[in-house]
Design brief:
There is one protein chain. The protein folds into 2 domains: 7-63, Arc Repressor Mutant, subunit A (Orthogonal Bundle); 75-155, 3-Layer(aba) Sandwich (Glutaredoxin). Helices cover 44% and strands 13% of the residues. It is built from 7 helices and 5 strands; from the N terminus they run H-H-H-H-E-H-H-E-E-E-E-H. Strands 2-3-1-4-5 form a 5-stranded mixed β-sheet, with helices on one face. The longest helix is centred in the last third of the chain and has 13 residues, at 143-155. It binds FE2/S2 (inorganic) cluster. FE2/S2 (inorganic) cluster binds next to helix 5. Residues 80, 82-85, 121-122, 124-125, 128, 130 line the site of FE2/S2 (inorganic) cluster.
Length: 157
């Protein structure tokens, strides 16, 4: 991940995007792909570039689960919200992990060690219910296994 950019660097990065052409999401993707997240200064730069308001840009950032407003955690957990996982108790897995990690969905532990996010089905439903830890499937979870996993990840620095 690159270091935090200056306003001039952000302006140069998104200079190709224009107002009124549906460029808001692509501009935000470019910022996130480049820096790993969308910082406050980027929200202001994108608003300026696209001739809109920071509030509107922020609304877009918070609407899409793919966008993050802080650097990635060392360990990123995505919880599968797909139907097969939920049918097999995915909601209990989510609340057990949230309680153990003490984070809300979309948040990070206080030390930024673990992030917990909403995920969409990736077709590995035979291992439902599941989460992905840094992109790797951890499936066939039970509440007890989910608590153990969350404890282990929270404890590993
Ligand atoms: S519903 Fe969870 S992987 Fe398909």
């Amino acid at each position: 991940m690159a270091a935090e950019p200056t306003t001039a660097e952000l302006r140069a990065l998104i200079a190709e995007f224009e107002p009124g052409k549906g460029h808001l999401v692509p501009a935000l993707h470019k910022v996130q792909e480049t820096y790993g997240y969308i910082m406050r200064e980027a929200i202001e730069a994108v608003a300026e570039q696209l001739n809109t308001t920071p509030a509107l840009v922020y609304g877009c950032v918070s609407f899409y689960d793919d966008f993050r407003t802080h650097p990635a955690a060392k360990t990123e957990i995505s919880w599968c919200s797909g139907p097969a996982c939920r049918l097999k108790g995915g909601d209990q897995i989510r609340s057990a992990m949230q309680q153990t990690l003490e984070v809300a969905l979309g948040g990070q532990t206080e030390d930024h060690g673990v992030g917990f996010h909403l995920g969409q089905c990736i077709g590995t439903c035979s291992e439902a219910p599941q989460v992905w830890v840094n992109g790797k499937v951890v499936g066939d979870l039970t509440v007890a296994k989910a608590i153990r996993l969350a404890r282990d990840l929270k404890g590993s620095k």
